[in-house]
Each structure stands twice: as C-alpha cells, then as structure tokens.
Amino acid sequence: MLKVIQVGVGGYGGSWLPTIMENDGVEHVALVDMNPEHLSRARKTIGLAEGLCFSDVEKAIAAVEADALLCVVPPAHHEAVIGTGIGAGLHVLSEKPIADTVASAQRILASVAESDRVFMIAQKARFHPWVHKFREIVTGGALGRMSHVTHYFRAPYYSWGEFRHKMADPLYIEMSIHHFDLLRALLGCDPASVWAQSWNTPYSTFNGDITGIAHFTMDNGLPVSYHADAISSGDMTDWFGEIRAVGETGTLTMVYPELYIARKGANHSDRAAPREEEMAVRPPQEGQAAVLREFAAAIAEGREPESAGAENIKSLAMVFAAVDSSRDQQVKRIADYLP
Q1: Sheet containing 242-247: which strands, arranged edge to edge?
Q2: Are residues 241 and 192 in the same domain?
Q3: Which of 19, 109, 210, 320 has the highest CB neighbour number within 10 Å of its CB?
C-alpha cells in the first residue's frame, strides 16, 4: 500500500480525494491545507481522523509514516512543498507546472537529481488512449507527408480560482502547460522554437494575459499553431481543445468526443470529407487515475515514470519561452530554457 500525504485539498485538490480512494494500492495517511474549512470537508470525504489533518507540511511528515507526497497547491508554492517532500525522502507527484519560474523548476530538479526518489508531474492529458492512437497515425505514415498542426482552445473561465486572477500569465502557466505537453505527446517530437503573442481582453477579470497565440516549430520541422482564449464568448471547445494534424492524404482530427481522419474528396458543394472513424475520446478527468497508477507503478518497479519532472521540463520550457516571446515579439529557442 502506497501511503500518501496530500498537500492542498481545496479547489482542484478535492478532485484527487476520490481518485486516491478508488485506487486499491494507494491510501491517504495525512491531509495538509492552510484553510480549516478545506481540511474539514476533505477529512469527512475520505473518513480520515482529525488528528491526521495539518496546516503545515513538515508537521504532517513528522507525525505519520508516508511513502509519497501529492502536491496540489498554487505554482508559486511548489518549490517549498516539493523540496520539503524530497528532502524528507518521499516520492513526489505534483500538479503542473513544475514551478512558476524556470529558475525555481531547475532548483527542484537539481534537488531531485541528488536523491533516488520518483518525481512526476500530473499531466493527465497524455495518459489517454486516444493520444497514443493519434501519435501512431501521425508518425506511422497514415497521413502521408505532414504539413502542419493546429490546436484551438476556447473556455469560459470568468471565475477560475483567486490566485489565477492575480497571476501575470494565467493562460500560458495554468492552462497552456497542459496543451503544450499534450502536443509533445501527440506528435512524438519536441519543440525547437516559438513565436508568441498574448493579451488580456478588455472585459477580463484577470490581472494577466488570458488569451494568446503561439507558433512552434518542432525539432523535425513541423509547424504547430496554437490559439487559446480562456475567457471566450460563443461556442466553446472541450478541455482538450480541437486538434488537427494535416497531412498529404488526409487530416487527423480530434473534436471531442471523436478522433477521426477526414480524407480528400470534399469540395465547395459538398464540404463534408470522406471520414474514417478511429476511436472515441474519453472524458479528460479520467486521465487523473491513470497518472496515479503510473506514479505508483514507477515506485514499485524502481523506474522513471512517464512525465517525470526531468522530462516534463521540456513542456515547461515551452511555456516560459512563449511568455518571453509575447513580451518582446522575438522568436525564442526552447533550448535556452532547459538545464
């Protein structure tokens, strides 16, 4: 049984409570949160004794026997929480991003490198079966020579957690990190450069930029265009967004809940292309359970998990390269943001 201390049980942290409860090989041994109401509600949800709830992570670690720590706090606090866990000899599973700055993320990775602990980032999108199918089709030649990829995301996040409304770059840091990591998983390659632009809409309730465009060139030369609006009006996408990989013989499309190939044959009078259904796409949140299974398996088997921190830094580099490019409108090399 993997014994876990969960740090952060309010907001999205609440979604982790049933995920751990439903995994037969993982159990909570302590909960940590600075908000007493969050602690009380979470404690009742999982049936944990009041004496196993703490407002301080160090006190929790000292009080219980644990194997791992789950970090579900705002990014600005990741370094302190993750560092405490690693320093205490615990394996750590953390919500994205690794940290709120490149420097902080690199300090975290340096501390992990000095240990023998598993450190994994919970990028739940990449663990879905449709993601593996998408990569297989794109890299296996089923679309012929590849032209480009587009990724559109539209969401009505008018109220999205108080800390996000105070951030300088809530779109890229809190949302796009999911999509950038997903793109790497979908295409089986990594980004080489990016040009980006971001802005805050006139009707926004955010302090920072909540809408943006980022154009990546991947290390195999494939162009990828990303357009996201997290305070959108009109029709919305699902959490994954709408993704199209355009090839010589067809376009692979994911529009939730479907993954399909549209082949040549459409025209101005009949705009619906011949269609090949590939598979159904399951709800995004189901990936969280898969993340937990991978984390537990990596610990049990003594191996690096998929989405290990040392690998996920490539996705975080995309975020901060895009942020910097949006500031000065210059193309940024992703390598300049890696250790």
Answers
A1: 275-280, 258-263, 250-255, 242-247, 146-154, 223-229, 211-218, 191-199, 332-333
A2: yes
A3: 210
CA 227 vs. chain centroid, Å, equals 17
- pLDDT at residue 238 in the model: 97
Verdict on whether the full-model pTM lies above 0.90: yes
By residue range, what is the domain housing residue 275?
Answer: 127-283+317-337
Structural domain count of the chain: 2
Instruction: Please indicate, yes or no, if residue 92 is contained in any of the structural domains.
Output: yes
Residues 140 and 276 in one domain: yes
Using an 8 Å Cβ cutoff, are 303 and 119 in contact?
no
pLDDT of residue 148: 98
**Cα–Cα distance, 30 to 58 (Å, whole number):** 11
d(CA 52, CA 195): 48
* pLDDT 10s digits, 120-163: 999 999 999 999 999 999 999 999 999 999 999 999 999 998 99
189 with 274, same domain: the answer is yes
